[in-house]
Hints:
Mean pLDDT of chain A: 87
Structural class of chain A: alpha+beta
Radius of gyration of chain B: 25 Å
Order of helices and strands of chain B: HHHHHHHHHHHHHHHHHHH
Order of helices and strands of chain A: EHEEEEHE
Oligomer: heterodimer
Helix content of chain B: 55-70%
Low-confidence stretches of chain B: 69-83, 183-188
Structural class of chain B: mainly alpha
Amino acid sequence: MLLMQFSAAGTDFPSIDTWTPEEIRAHIGFMGDVNAKLVADGEFVQGEGLGGPQQARIVRAGENGAPVVTEGPFAETKEFLAGWWIVDCETPQRAVEIAAHISTAPGPGGRPLNMPIEVHPVMSAPSQEL
Amino acid sequence: MLARRFGDFATAEDAVQEALLAAATQWPAEGLPDHPRGWLIQVAYRRMIELVRGEAARRDREDRAARRDGDDRRTAPAADEPLTADRDDTLVLLFLCCHPTLSTPSAIALTLRAVGGLSTAEIARAFLVPEATMAQRISRAKQRIRSSGLPFRMPAEEDRQARLAAVLHVLYLIFTEGHTASLGDDLRRVDLSEEAIRLTRAMHGLLPDDSEVAGLLALMLLTEARAAARTGPSGELISLAEQDRSRWDTAAIAEGTALVTRAMARGPVGPYQLQAAIAALHDEAPTAERTDWPQILALYEVLERLTESPVVSLNRAVATAMVHGPAAGLATLEALAADPRLTGHHRLDAARAHLHEMAGDRDAAARHYRAAAGRTTSRPEHEYLLMRAARLANPH
Lengths: 130, 396
């Protein structure tokens, strides 16, 4: 699983809502190409882009299990999940290669963002006889 | 058969599918022909000619096919002609689908599609990936076979053993994939273990004298015999020692045991037969306590020399503990821990935990169970290992 996780510490580019339309279009086009190539290579399982942190909510069960919703924005967390991919690859190295490519998505001025991508194994291996 | 005649795997597959489609639409209305297989081959053959001729881009392939075959080979066989070539064709197709130039996932997908006859959608569901992803995997594999110019014929004698090993490995992987517990039980999911057994059984029918093919079929049957007992009501793994043996499939055990006994008597003995023999010894024990561990240990020693697999070495260490006590087993494990292939491997921690538990050292056992749980990528194993640790910490 490849996580596009942004944090104040790990990201050094301006928020996407300050980019020009061309820069945003180039960025979205790049992500579209990434997905199309993963499907063509038989590696794509799933992927989604998430709404910004201001749209997210934290939910806890309160009295009688009724939801207690805390509004964003998450100013105090300094970290949010922007999107993810699940890819099915032959080797962990291949997942790292894909993550490195995603990391080069273009940002302001068309320069690569080199954003941090977290790579997590999904629990899916066959279980062995015990 | 068509693939051999035209040297074109992908078109042959399309033609056969169209023939099957024609059969599905015509037979219910018109009744079964006298020789359904011959009818299918004739229809497929005619479709094949249409497909091959129908595309300008494929004309050069037709020329190649024409040059390769004499005139006598370019007439469709009579519908009632006995088909002696069938046996070899299925084998050649298996060899082609499991060719070493293909990646393992591609070989698995192509084998299930072309030899197993599963639909792309079924294979995609079995591996929990979208259909488009699986379709691409299969078409790239076909493309790869086409562009590498692999001939549709039996591998040369000197390559045959290595190529056969590749086929058996793919079938074995399909079988173990069937033991992947997925989130939620999708009833439409193809049972890959059953599919692997079906394919291996067919292979055994084609190569009845090959002892390793028989060994692999036996191993699958003897492992699958325990399937009903190896998971609990919520899908949790139950270890061999704690399984309810009355739920094991005695018919499958009898068949697998007979197969491996015959194969080993005939020889040559290989890794699949040895693993099947070990599985048979487990399956034949009326209780866990009465397992013939000395015999299992002897088999693991042979298997270890044959495969040099670190996981086999771990199993040998556990068998050593069952025969000579946990201290001897732990000493064996420590000797293995230096193997870089086992560094950070969850099975090393799991084996250590198991032997510490045998020795009565609950703290060390729980610590290693937790370490193993943190390292496995199998969800059911993760839960099993955490549960073992929890049981040690909270004895009832």
